Amino acid sequence: MAILSILEYPDPKLRKKALPVEVVDDSIRTLLDDMLETMYAAPGIGLAATQVNKQKRVIVIDITEEKNDPLRLVNPEVIWTSGTEEMDEGCLSVPGVFEKVSRAEKVRVKAMGYDGNYFELETEGLLAVCIQHEIDHLEGKLFVDYLSPIKRHRARKKLEKDRRQKATNPDQKKSVL
Ligand code: NI
If you ran DSSP here, which 8-state letter would residue 94 be given? Predict the structure, then answer.
């Protein structure tokens, strides 16, 4: 396995649209393994292939504190949603920035797993938010796109300042998607 480098906002490569995976073969399984290792090392709770500069519809998620319940989704597609909720979000591609985003409260998602078989999953709360956040990445969309222009500008300034200071993320306790 290998740790991949994560693109950071406002890198234009984060805006590329990911292509559907036709077959879950060894190259896709290697990508899934590498993405999980990269996500755990970051540390984060979700990572989309777009963030590691691979234009494939592949995401990995693990919201457990023990980091022992990985979810691997290939060609994920939300097929049903219900309700709305607001949650603080962060992102490995927008380090140090946390803002409230409104999303569906419950989702049903269809995807292929590690074995290439399709399955469906219905979930809510943090996992539902995470799935929606990661699928957005595959569309070239970032959570900061939902913010007001003023808040987005502030986020970008904070990123630039943190980069100048080479500051590490002080919000280690928060979930980074
Ligand atoms: Ni993200």
Answer: S
Q: How far is the CA of 44 from the centre of ligand 1 (A)?
A: 9
**Beta strands 118-124 and 99-112: pairing type?**
antiparallel
For residue 153, count other CB atoms closer than 10 A to its CB.
Answer: 12
- Residues of the chain whose pLDDT is less than 70? 167-173
User: For residues 9 and 95, is the Cβ–Cβ distance under 8 A?
Assistant: no
Amino acid at 34: D
CA–CA separation, 90 vs 86, rounded Å? Answer: 13
φ, ψ of residue 73 to 5 degrees: the values are: -125, 125
How many whole angstroms from 118 Cα to the centroid of ligand 1? 24
pLDDT tens-digit profile of 19-54? 999 999 999 999 999 999 999 999 999 999 999 999
Q: Is 86 a catalytic residue?
A: no
From the CA of 93, how far away is ligand 1's center (Å)? Answer: 6
Please name the amino acid found at residue 99.
E
